[in-house]
Amino acid sequence: MDKIAGASRFDFGITSLMGGVSMVPAIIGFYAIPEVIKAFAKPKEEIIVKKAKDDIKEKVPIWGTVFKNLRLVIQSALIGLGVGSLPGVGEDVATWVGYDAAKKTSKTPEKFGTGCYEGAIAPEVANNSAIGGAMIPMLTLAVPGSPPAVVLLEALMIHNVRPGPMIMRDNPTFINYIAALLFLAVLALWVSGIILAKPMSLILKVPAVYLMPIVSVLSIIGAYAINNNPFDIIIALIFGLLGYFLDKMQY
Fold first, then answer.
1. Which residues of 173-185 are buried (b: 16+ CB within 10 A; e: fewer)?
2. 3-class state of residue 212 by DSSP
3. pTM for the model
C-alpha cells in the first residue's frame, strides 16, 4: 500500500500481495527449495549411493580443537558481542560477519567451504555470543537487539519488569539473574551438544532420496506456519524456482 495515497502498488491485482512479499517464506523458498531440486536433478545412482561412511574413525578432539583455534574463538565471540549489542541487528548478521572475518584472517582461506573446522567454529561462536550482546541494549535501553530479545522483552513486561535505564533502581538484582541464566544456558547447550552430536550425525547416513522429501515438506510447513497463509506456500515455491535458476547460472 502506498503510504501517501493509500493505493495498492505492484500487487498485480492479488490481495495477498497488498502487504508485500513475506520475507521468511521467500527466504525459505530461496535457500531450501533449490537444494531439494538439485538433489533430485542428480543421477539416481548418485543420490542413493551418497551416504556417510560407516568406517569413519576420525573423532574431533573437543578441547584440542578449542585451544588450537582459541584466537578464532575469542575473535568470533567479540564480533558476536559487538554485533549483538547493536539494536535490531540480531544473530544472523553476527554469524555472517564472524564467518567473513574468520576467512579473511585465516592462514588457509582456500579451505573455507570444504568442511574445515574454522568455518564451523566462527559462525557458531558469533551466533551464540550475539545472544548475550543482544541483552545489553534490551536491558539498558529497552531496545531489543534481536528477534529473541523482542520476545524476552515482551515476557518481562508481562511480569511487570520494565527494562531500561531505571532497571537497576527498580530491580537491582535482575541483571545478575539474567547473567546467571545465560551462563547456565551455555552449560546446558554444551552438555546437550556433546550428547546429541553422534546421534544427529546419523542423519548423514539417510539417502538423499528419502531425506529431501522430508526437507521439502518441513520447508512448506515452515513457510505456511509463519502467517498461517496458504499464499506464502506459493511465494516459497516461486522463490525456490528463482533461486534454483540463479544457482544454475552461477550467481
1. eeeeebeeeeeee
2. helix
3. 0.61
